[in-house]
C-alpha cells in the first residue's frame, strides 16, 4: 500500500516577532541570537521527524510551530547543556515522525 504525504514549504514556521512574543523578550539586543536559535529549533523538530518539510495535514503546521517554539524557548532559556527528554516537543510531533527500517 502506497502512503501519500503532501508537504508544504510556505515559509518559516514563525516570525522573529512571534518568537520574541513567545520568549517574552521586548528588546532587540538578542535578535541575532533568537534568529539562530529559531533556525536550530525548526531544524530540530524536522530532524526529529526525519523530514525536510512540514506535512500539509490538519493540525500539522500548528503542532510543528508549537514544538519549534518550545524548542526555541528551551535553547534560549538554557544556554548551557541540560539533560532533558524533550517530551513536550516530541509529544507534539511524534505523529508526523518518519522512521527508517
From TrEMBL:
InterPro entries: Phage_gp6-like_head-tail, Phage_HK97_gp6-like
The protein's name: Phage gp6-like head-tail connector protein
NCBIfam families: put_DNA_pack
Species this protein is from: Brevundimonas vesicularis (Pseudomonas vesicularis)
Amino acid at each position: 500500500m502506497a502512503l501519500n504525504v503532501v508537504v508544504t514549504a510556505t515559509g518559516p514556521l514563525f516570525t522573529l516577532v512571534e518568537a520574541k512574543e513567545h520568549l517574552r523578550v521586548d528588546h532587540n539586543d538578542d535578535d541575532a541570537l533568537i534568529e539562530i536559535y529559531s533556525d536550530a529549533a525548526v531544524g530540530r523538530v524536522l530532524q526529529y521527524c526525519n523530514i525536510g518539510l512540514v506535512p500539509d495535514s490538519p493540525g500539522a503546521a500548528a503542532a510543528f510551530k508549537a514544538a519549534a517554539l518550545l524548542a526555541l524557548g528551551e535553547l534560549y532559556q538554557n544556554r548551557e547543556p541540560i539533560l532533558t527528554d524533550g517530551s513536550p516537543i516530541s509529544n507534539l510531533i511524534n505523529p508526523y515522525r518518519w522512521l527508517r527500517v
